[in-house]
Amino acid sequence: MGEPLEYERALWDGGVSRIAGVDEVGRGPIAGPVVAGAVVLPVGRGVAGADDSKVLAPARRLELAAEIEARAEAIAIGAASAREIDRLGILRATARAMERALARLPEQPDHVVVDGLPVADLPWRHEAVVGGDALVHSIACASIVAKVCRDRLMTRLAPRYPEYRWERNKGYATPRHRRAVREAGLTPHHRVSFGLRQLELSF
Question: I need a labelling partner for 83 at 20 to 30 A (CA). Which of 12, 14, 129, 153 fits?
Answer without folding.
Answer: 129
